[in-house]
Each structure stands twice: as C-alpha cells, then as structure tokens.
Amino acid sequence: MKIEIKKEFYPDYISREAGEKLRQKVAQQLQQGSIIELDFADCMIASTSFFDEGIAKLALEFDDVNEKAKLLKIKNLHRRDRELLLSLCKKRIFKIFL
User: If we measure between CA atoms, which residue out of 39, 29, 25, 23 comes closest to residue 73?
Assistant: First the structure.
C-alpha cells in the first residue's frame, strides 16, 4: 500500500489528529504484514506532532515494532524532516529505516 502524504493529508499534515489518522492506517497494514510506503514528495512537514503521532508512536502499537519497521518504506522525506523523525523515533526506541 502506498500513502502519498501530500495528497492524502493536505492541507493538514501538521496536526496531531492527522498524525493519529496516519498511524491508524499504517498500524492496520503492518498488522496484516503488508508493506507500506509513505511518500513525502513535494512537502515539508516540520511538525513534531504529526511525526510523533503518525510514525514514532508505532513503537507503542506492537511488541515487535522493529520487525514491523522493516515493512515500512519512507520515500522523499525532506532532510530536516528526516532529522526530526529520526530523533522522535530514537526517543521511543523505534528503529526506522530511511
């Protein structure tokens, strides 16, 4: 499954609520063992709330979250967003692959 962040969440890809919606979609797919691709093309998120709720909190969803992370593909992430996301995931002991 592919989720185009700009298309799916515009104009709200900064709020905690949007992040929760993203996390629910991603968690559902990961639970089924599906590969999921998040495409951040043409957008800069720069939102701690969106990244924490949408991706970093996946660490709370699964006991084997770092195994599930192997099914999560993140593409076209802005350099600054990458730094922010890595920092948030590190705090939650969630190893994502960028």
Answer: 39
